[in-house]
Give the backbone structure.
Amino acid sequence: MPPRTSHPGHALLTLLTLLLIGLAPVAFGLLVMAWQVNKQLDESAVLALRDARLGVDSLLDSLHGASNKVLNLAEYACDKALPALHSEVVGNPQLRSLTLVRENRAYCSTLRGESGLLVDPGDYFNHRLRLEAGNDNTPDSAILYYRLQEYPYGVLAVADGEILQRVLRGTRLPESVKLQFGPTLIGALGEVEDSLEALSSEPDMSQVSPMYGYTLHILHPPGHAVRQLLDNSLVVVPSLLLVGIMTAAGSYWAMYRRRRGMRRAM
């Protein structure tokens, strides 16, 4: 019988084969994990947008209902209409103030009483919504205007931005949900930003309210998806490595037995 000779090339090929066999379940598991993480992010975004839209629509429904209820008061002088306006504001916790408008002039407000401020419909998104960072009364608190118009009469209903903040904070992704009313945008912390600057990067997901036309965006912080992948990897990778090692070991044992059987046959 000729003496056995070692084959370094064969040993290297065996090592590479075992390495590939061991890495295969690890790579496949990571791909599945990445797919699941992306799917979970999309599902969370869809639910966050839905919850935010329901909350904002509910607020605007309340403002519309209150405005419609007092619209007929715009036919009267301010001293006659003001008591009913105050009663409506007191009875609706989502209202901050009501203002009657006649021929695009705000002539009667629950905050200022009689006035004559000009109301420009062009200042309102879709001619009925306007978000501001604040006003003279509360310069550091966002406010939302809802405008109802049946010319020559109209109503301006005002709500605190804090209500919008609570809606956004109550979603699954409070740090990522942004609410846009035309040129302005608000987040869960109450910051009012210019929408062009805030949306300089493409939102991860957006949804337009079919009822009121505002837009909700999901804007994840930079690196959010990567952090989610890393967090999941810390849990999954040890198990995947164990599976890979066991798979490689099982393959090596099968190759060893096969080679041993061939040597015996020779």
